[in-house]
Amino acid sequence: MIRIGLAGWGDHPTLYKESGAARNKLASYSRWLNCVEVDSTFYAVQSQELMHRWAKDTPAEFRFVVKAYQGMTGHARGGGSGYKPFPSEAAMFEAFRESIVPLQEAGKLAAVLFQYPPWFDCTRQHVDMIRKAKQQMGEVPCALEFRHQSWFAPEMREKTLDFTQREGWMHTVCDEPQAGDGSVPIVEAATDEQATIVRLHGRNAEGWVSAGQPNWRDVRYLYRYNEEELQDWAERLHRLEQLSQTVFILFNNNSGGDAADNALQLMRMLGQVPPRGAFETVKPAEKAEQLELFD
To answer: What is the pTM of this model?
Structure first.
């Protein structure tokens, strides 16, 4: 099964053109796509109440890929300060695990995505950190995404994949600009029979290295996949589908609002239809005209 989704649900105007659609964006989103990546959990551990609301606002077959809190992936550097506002690493992991319980109980948690930072290179210390992180997550399904090229250097590619599988992680296949050490190639592989994650970040090489610039959010993921590129991905997805029961493909190329359009384009290519049953939308003015017919 191939599930198509986006990174977040708040910033995709293509999906909210119909009257009232923006009032509850997650509910409206779930009528277009059947999975989503949650990014807010990277910046703060969210409350169980919020997770419960997300579960309630989506249909039974909907799935969430939840990003791990930044302190859990080494983004907050500086020793113990990376655990703040928690007193310890153990307390941080415990708080995160407790926060996602409502999604687990609803059967809607696809995976927790551990996206490690660009400086997180392939070293013994970092291997041990990954191993410890998985141990602290227990039986929670987890996906692993690297940003440093050393993990998939020719001599390390198979070793990294073997480690990922052995430690019980899902492999995350990434499509991103090839811009030095802080990027990885497309590694078409699966390490988990149940699921594989695919994340499409775009191919804007200049924007990819804009971290630290005032407008980095506006340019980092500024890219629209063309027909040929999406067709290549449709073929890759079919191959990955032979290796994992479910393949989640998540479009993160949304600096210019392209993610939703690309997702729906790929859906058509794969012969899928949105959960709502149709791609066509009814504009508010058109609805008004239809109602006037019965006045």
So the answer is: 0.90
Say how far apart CA 274 and CA 33 lie, in whole Å: 6
Query: 9-30 pLDDT, tens per residue?
Result: 998 988 998 888 888 999 999 9
Sorted by where each starts, the structural domains of the chain and their CATH numbers stand as 2-292 (3.20.20.410)
Look-up of token digits 């594989």: 196
